[in-house]
Design the sequence.
């Protein structure tokens, strides 16, 4: 066959193979070379190095591009930028909400509140109504701002004289990246049907409370639910992470707390008992503890001398009194505290008093310096008793007297 014809046929076969998407056949290697190519090497089986992994991540990153833009912009966002962003939030006066009762409008305006609006709002929002406090109650709730702080204010029965302020947060906590190098306010409240609790909680809210016969206050888009049960506001998921109780409920709980007369403590020195009765003091009791308590004795100033300490209640305020040697009143400690500040929830809508005192001997005091991974040493020698001053099931400190002063040492945590 002529050489020109052979060349023409080879070129034609190559063109046909390419048109079918096939790769041209490669020249065959010698048998020995093929064996070498097919045999894996030790390097082929080696685990990828950190450098190899970094290269793969760099080449095949699957991060959200918008997230990367947001983080990149945040890294350049200064405090001045934050301040400008917050100041750009649109606020409306209460008078712009015609359906809001005039009494509430006037109250909000007098207190200096305005109504913040989400950056993408197309209509006036953050003023809602519903039976939030109890079934059949005609209540209003307003997301109100003042001094760059926003909160939810509930007006029970639509009255400005019966209000509850809850969920207090800086406005900047509700800023989100909106694109184009800007941040916008996103917080919005809505009337929430608790029977659709999955929107706000992992489980239906009616599995938590025996009856959910009224509305709650929900956080649109960002989640969160405030729900009132027997005067106590509970929060679920999202941005609401506290329990809110109306002031009237706190006050009622403080008025109802159990108090014992001085005569309930037969070991109390007669002089202290007479003084307490004359001054009108009783002894407040921690909820759920039926044994008389909050009257203690110990060697609080020096070894060998017995002193007395007690919590004394009057006019819904309690105070810690210490009697040196059982006769001399030590008035160097802090003044009376409102008993509502020492209330906490015990479930089933119950609020109870939780301030307690107990005698802390030297062994207990020293043990607290080694507990909770502190592994510390006392700042001075522990030579006598102290007074444990605590909030039940939360924390305590130990009051220790030395060289004419009371010192606070670690207690329970």
Sequence:
């Amino acid at each position: 066959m002529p050489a020109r014809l052979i060349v023409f046929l080879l070129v034609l076969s190559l063109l046909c193979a390419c048109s079918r998407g096939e790769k041209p056949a490669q020249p065959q290697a010698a048998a020995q070379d093929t064996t070498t190519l097919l045999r894996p090497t030790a390097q082929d089986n080696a685990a990828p190095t950190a450098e190899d992994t970094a290269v793969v991540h760099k080449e095949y990153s699957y991060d959200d591009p918008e997230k990367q833009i947001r983080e990149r912009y945040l890294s350049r966002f200064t405090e001045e930028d934050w301040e400008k962003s917050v100041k750009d939030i649109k606020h409306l006066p209460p008078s712009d909400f015609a359906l809001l009762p005039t009494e509430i409008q006037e109250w909000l305006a007098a207190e200096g509140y305005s109504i913040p609006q989400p950056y993408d709002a197309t209509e006036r929002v953050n003023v809602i109504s519903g039976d939030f406090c109890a079934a059949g109650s005609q209540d209003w709730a307003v997301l109100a701002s003042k001094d760059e702080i926003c909160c939810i204010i509930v007006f029970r029965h639509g009255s400005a004289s019966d209000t509850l302020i809850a969920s207090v947060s800086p406005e900047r906590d509700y800023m989100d990246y909106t694109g184009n190098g800007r941040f916008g306010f996103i917080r919005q409240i809505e009337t929430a049907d608790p029977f659709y609790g999955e929107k706000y909680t992992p489980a239906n809210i009616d599995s938590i409370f025996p009856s959910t016969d009224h509305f709650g206050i929900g956080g649109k888009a960002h989640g969160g639910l405030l729900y009132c049960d027997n005067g106590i506001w509970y929060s679920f998921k999202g941005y609401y992470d506290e329990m809110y109780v109306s002031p009237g409920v706190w006050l009622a709980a403080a008025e109802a707390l159990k108090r014992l007369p001085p005569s309930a403590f037969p070991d109390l020195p007669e002089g202290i008992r007479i003084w307490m009765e004359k001054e009108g003091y009783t002894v407040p009791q921690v909820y759920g503890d039926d044994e008389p308590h909050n009257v203690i004795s110990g060697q609080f100033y020096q070894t060998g001398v017995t002193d007395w300490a007690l919590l004394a209640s009057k006019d819904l305020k309690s105070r810690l009194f210490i009697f040196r040697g059982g006769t001399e009143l030590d008035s160097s400690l802090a003044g009376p505290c409102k008993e509502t500040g020492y209330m906490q929830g015990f479930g089933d809508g119950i609020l109870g008093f939780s301030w307690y005192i107990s005698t802390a001997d030297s062994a207990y005091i020293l043990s607290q310096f080694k507990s909770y991974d502190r592994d510390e040493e006392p700042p001075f020698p522990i030579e006598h008793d102290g007074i444990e001053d605590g909030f039940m099931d939360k924390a305590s400190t130990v009051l220790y007297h030395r060289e004419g002063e009371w010192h606070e040492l670690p207690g329970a945590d």
Notes: Residues 4-12, 14-62, 238-243 have pLDDT under 50 and may be disordered. The first helix runs from residue 3 to 19. The chain has ten helices and 26 strands.
